[in-house]
Amino acid sequence: MIDFWLQRFQKGIQTQNSWADEELAKIKKRLKSEIGKKFSGSLAIRMVDSGSCNACEAECNALSNPYYDLERLGIRFVASPRHADILLVSGVVTFNMLPHLLDAYEQLPSPKWVITLGDCTQGTVFKDSFAIKGPVNKHLPVAYHIPGCPPAPDEIIKGLLGFLQTL
Ligand code: SF4
To answer: Which of 9, 74, 95, 98 has the fewest beta carbons under 10 Å from its own?
Structure first.
């Protein structure tokens, strides 16, 4: 049992796929370094679901589990846009959510960035419906897009790293 806990503290949580564990560890290290350099070690994200199926949110929830453990890298999901650096938008932008999405963006302090999460933010689903006002980039300046339907947690982490490397 002691060996188990020693390994747990030294190497973190490991799965049966050691290659994926090592790749993820490398990406997390680079992500932490970028956040340290560009956001003084603390990156706050406000997520807005503009009308999604909730699968993208479920994948984001997984980022807080002990395996991905994003908070250890300095990334926090915050409740208020006033405390955020980034607006992370999922969903198709419904007629009802559009004003709330724009309001959240207005409340973010500058400098601020918009990242879209998931393919339906690009305006492909129900795009000719009167109730859908997407794509997101029709209304907001999108700095980066993370593709997938839904993107898996490691793809979201890679996407965040990709965004930071553009700054
Ligand atoms: S991108 Fe796919 S999984 Fe994500 S909210 Fe849209 S439909 Fe759902």
So the answer is: 9
